[in-house]
Specification:
heterodimer, A: alpha+beta, Beta Polymerase, domain 2, two-stranded antiparallel ribbon, globular, B: mainly alpha, about 85% helix
Chain lengths: ~190, ~60
């Protein structure tokens, strides 16, 4: 049987459709649990995590407008001003779903510091996933899971990615990112 | 750390479950299945050696 576009399941289709719109307005990365699942980790996630460059309201408004036009809605508000000033600019995330649906959802937030900006700068597509999506680098994913998130699930995700990309990632870069994460943690205290 | 919209989302989802007369189960099932299918597809793309390593680690854990 010939299988085409429909070969993608609802989660993959949702993520790719959403990312395609966002990319027209701003640079983004997808990180965290979705990355692990896209690499074969048998675990679940409640949402897809996306970080976008911090952009001015006018630019965000156009992005939001196109998302709505293409059938997405923001769970926090339909008002771009409210989303921007009550949530994003304060460092809080907002959640988008397909109109009238609860699942899947995209958790979107602004880059909060240089470390996030660097992740966006070094973003990459990961051909192994067969998804047309920009991800944070493998080094970055491993570093954040081991140094920042650190739950049992995250450590297992990191180990999983280390096996998948054995010989294809740079431990020195991981350690550099971890050092920056430690500095971020120190500054947040 | 999860931010405030995560809790908002949990409340909205729980409230939807209460009101949806069981319709939520289909949505939820489809969502969970899509994650399992995605992971299975990825595992199939691995070289036999790496797949063995992943499965060995998984079995060791359980």
């Amino acid at each position: 049987m010939r299988r085409g576009v429909s070969d993608k399941n609802i989660l993959e289709k949702f993520a790719e459709d959403f990312c395609k719109i966002v990319e027209k307005h701003v640079k983004y990365i997808v990180c965290s649990g979705f990355v692990a699942i896209a690499h074969g980790r048998s675990r679940s996630t409640e949402d897809i995590d996306m970080i976008i460059e911090k952009i001015p309201f006018e630019k965000f408004s156009k992005l939001h407008e196109e998302l709505v036009k293409k059938g997405f809605e923001c769970m926090q508000s339909s008002d771009a001003k409210k989303i921007f000033y009550d949530y994003l600019i304060n460092g809080d995330s907002v959640r988008y779903t397909r109109k009238g649906k609860f699942l899947p959802e995209m958790e979107l937030k602004f880059a909060k510091d240089e470390l996030d900006n660097e992740q966006i700068k070094n973003r990459t597509k990961l051909p192994f996933t067969k998804l047309d999506i920009f991800f944070s680098s493998i080094e970055s994913n491993i570093a954040f899971k081991e140094e920042f998130l650190g739950s049992e699930k995250d450590l297992e995700d990191a180990e999983h990615l280390r096996i998948i990309y054995e010989g294809a990632f740079d431990e020195k870069i991981i350690n550099e990112i971890k050092e920056k994460i430690r500095k971020r943690k120190k500054n947040e205290r | 750390m999860r931010d405030k919209t995560h809790l908002e989302q949990i409340r909205k989802w729980a409230s939807y479950i209460k009101k949806s007369d069981g319709k939520w189960k289909k949505e939820f099932n489809e969502f969970i299945n899509s994650q399992i299918i995605m992971a299975e597809k990825a595992l199939k793309r691995l070289t036999p050696g790496k797949r063995r390593k992943i499965l060995f680690r998984k079995n060791k854990k359980s």
